[in-house]
Amino acid sequence: MHRRKGFVALLLAAASMAMLGLSFAAVPLYRLFCSATGFGGTPQIVKTAPSEKGQRNLTIRFDANVAPGLAWKFNPEIPQIKLRTGETATVYYKTTNVTDRETVARAMFNVSPGGAGAYFNKIACFCFNEQKLGPGETVEMPVVFYLDPALENDPIMEGVQTITLSYTFFALKAPKGEKTAVVQEVKRDAWSP
């Protein structure tokens, strides 16, 4: 009887450790799943453009946001384009640090509707890396992408005419020892266009 209780306790401890391990693995596994399948509007990352063009033309809208705590202006240089499937496009976003100190941020991105993420392929993007802007610095940041012609065969995408690519920049804290500051207070007049 005492041996049985010890076995049950050991089994429960092993199950608890396995659940704890899975909880730590959940976020990276979810990200891996989303990037592989386009789930939740996660665009695909590719190295080259497609060899063939498709037949459909879709409108691609560009959305730009800055999270609270980051005093940057961030806008697409054009609000939207018409793009044929399989055709590569380069679009620029203009970003300005409106503070008097260097700041660091990273852009998170998604595509809507969610089903379009599996067909939205990025070749190059500013969102792949952290961005560091000096005081008052303005930069143009490109994104190079195409829509996979395979979307023409997906019944879910049949009625879709517009796809939105959305970015949100989030402030990052500087590594210890660096003098880079992340602005915590956002001045309202800094956001006027």
The number of distinct β-strands equals 10
Query: What would CATH call the homologous superfamily of the largest domain?
Result: Ctag/Cox11
- The CATH class of the largest domain turns out to be Mainly Beta
Strand order of the largest sheet: 1-7-9-5-3
Main pleated-sheet profile: 5 strands, mixed
Radius of gyration: 22 Å
What percentage of amino acids are in beta strands? 35-45%
Q: How much helical structure, as a percent, in the residues?
A: 10-25%
Query: What's the average pLDDT?
Result: 79
Commentary on this structure:
This protein is an alpha+beta fold. It folds into 2 domains: about 1-35; about 40-190, Ctag/Cox11 (Ctag/Cox11 (Pfam 04442), Sandwich). The chain is about 20% helix and about 35% strand. It contains 1 helix and 10 strands; from the N terminus they run αββββββββββ. The strands form 2 sheets. It has a 5-stranded mixed sheet with strand order 1-7-9-5-3. It has a 5-stranded mixed sheet with strand order 4-2-10-6-8, with no helix packed on it. The longest helix has about 35 residues, at about 1-35. The radius of gyration is 22 Å and the shape is flat. The relative contact order is 0.22.
Question: What is shown here, in short?
Answer:
The chain is of the alpha+beta class and 193 residues long. The protein has one helix at 2-37, and strands at residues 44-45, 57-66, 72-76, 80-84, 89-97, 103-112, 120-125, 131-133, 138-147, 162-172. Helix content is 19%, strand content 37%.
